[in-house]
């Protein structure tokens, strides 16, 4: 564009100077020649300004044409972690309000299920409470791209009528491995313990096993299993001897069950951030490679400033608020 403008100026100057030369031949007046030269300079400047304006107009038009209108359309399917499901669904609802031509579907099913489905190209996003390598073999996991959207804190929950508000790590482990079967043995009433747990595909279960039970395997044959956190909460609420575990996000504005402290430390965002409460994990959204166009836009929306206020409001954690010790303790 600059080369074209230079050519225009050169042509204008040539024409103007030719006119000045003719005028000088017709008159011996030095004043006339100077006037002609001034006219030539003015004409060149005017022509250059016009060319510059035209160039700016063309550049602006090209830039406007290169920038998309911002519309997003198509279908997006995400599935997996039930712990992340409420946040993903809230993001989906706001995303569809912003982009009416987009349809976002969010399902649960457990982290392992979501990871297997995205690895098989059955869905766009696999939601997970754990790293893909913990649920998939190396060949499947290597093709997936990890997007860590937030943190999630897991809490033991019991029926409110029990009056149990704190358990030690040892007591909690003994309960979930069925070594302890009555609440009277851990300071509660004479009531048989009912375990309500998650299936093997659950990332919530994997997180709880690692950080609350010191790696001990749950007594699955001694428990009720559900892949839905809402169902688990309802079961604990309806049965006096029941104990289970859910993401802290399910306890926001929900006092139907009792959250239990571990070794005297309350399950809260503050205690997660400062590193005193250990039962938490990063929440992941996995795509196959870079993922579809709509998946990329949706994940960027979830991790962007516009949606950020919803994260803590719904009981999830902001990764940047973790203390150095907390982040280091859960480093991959």
End-to-end gap: 52 Å
% residues in beta strands: 15-25%
What coarse outline follows from CA principal-axis ratios? globular
Top CATH class of the largest domain = Alpha Beta
CATH architectural designation of the largest domain: 3-Layer(aba) Sandwich
Describe the largest sheet.
Answer: 9 strands, mixed
Explain what the structure shows.
Helix 1 (2-26) packs antiparallel against helix 2. The chain is globular and about 60 Å long. Strands 1, 2, 3, 4, 6, 7, 8, 9 and 11 form a nine-stranded mixed beta sheet that branches. It has a two-stranded parallel sheet with strand order 5-10. The protein is α/β, with parallel strands linked by helices and 332 residues long. Strand 1 (74-80), helix 3 and strand 2 form a beta-alpha-beta unit. Residues 1-69 have low confidence and may be disordered. The protein has helices at 2-26, 30-66, 85-98, 111-119, 138-141, 169-176, 203-211, 229-238, 269-273, 293-302, 308-313, 324-329; strands at 74-80, 102-109, 125-128, 144-159, 166-167, 194-197, 223-225, 242-247, 257-259, 261-262, 280-288. The chain has twelve helices and eleven strands. The chain folds into three domains: 2-64; 74-147 and 290-318, D-Maltodextrin-Binding Protein, domain 2 (3-Layer(aba) Sandwich); 152-273, D-Maltodextrin-Binding Protein, domain 2, CATH 3.40.190.
């Amino acid at each position: 564009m600059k080369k074209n403008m230079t050519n225009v100026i050169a042509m204008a100057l040539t024409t103007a100077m030719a006119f000045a030369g003719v005028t000088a031949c017709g008159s011996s007046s030095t004043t006339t020649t100077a006037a002609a030269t001034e006219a030539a300079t003015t004409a060149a400047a005017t022509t250059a300004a016009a060319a510059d304006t035209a160039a700016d107009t063309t550049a602006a038009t090209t830039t406007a044409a290169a920038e998309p209108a911002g519309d997003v359309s198509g279908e997006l399917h995400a599935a997996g972690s039930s712990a992340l499901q409420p946040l993903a669904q809230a993001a989906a609802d706001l995303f569809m309000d912003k982009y009416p031509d987009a349809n976002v579907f969010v399902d649960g099913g457990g982290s392992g299920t979501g990871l297997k489905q995205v690895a098989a190209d059955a869905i766009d996003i696999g939601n997970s409470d754990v790293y893909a390598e913990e649920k998939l073999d190396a060949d499947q996991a290597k093709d997936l791209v990890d997007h860590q959207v937030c943190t999630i804190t897991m809490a033991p929950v019991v029926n409110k009528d029990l009056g149990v508000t704190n358990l030690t790590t040892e007591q909690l482990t003994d309960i979930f491995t069925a070594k302890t079967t009555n609440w009277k043995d851990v300071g509660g009433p004479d009531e048989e313990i009912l375990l309500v747990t998650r299936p093997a595909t659950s990332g919530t279960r994997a997180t709880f096993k690692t950080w609350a039970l010191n790696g001990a395997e749950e007594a699955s044959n001694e428990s009720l299993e559900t892949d839905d956190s809402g169902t688990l909460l309802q079961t604990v609420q309806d049965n006096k001897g029941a104990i289970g575990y859910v993401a802290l996000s399910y306890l926001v504005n929900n006092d139907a069950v009792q959250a239990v402290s571990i070794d005297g430390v309350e399950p809260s965002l503050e205690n997660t951030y400062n590193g005193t409460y250990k039962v938490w994990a990063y929440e992941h959204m996995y795509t196959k490679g870079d993922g579809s166009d709509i998946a990329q836009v949706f994940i960027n929306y979830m991790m962007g400033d516009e949606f950020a206020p919803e994260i803590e409001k719904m009981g999830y954690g902001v990764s940047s608020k973790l203390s150095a010790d907390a982040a280091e303790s859960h480093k991959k």
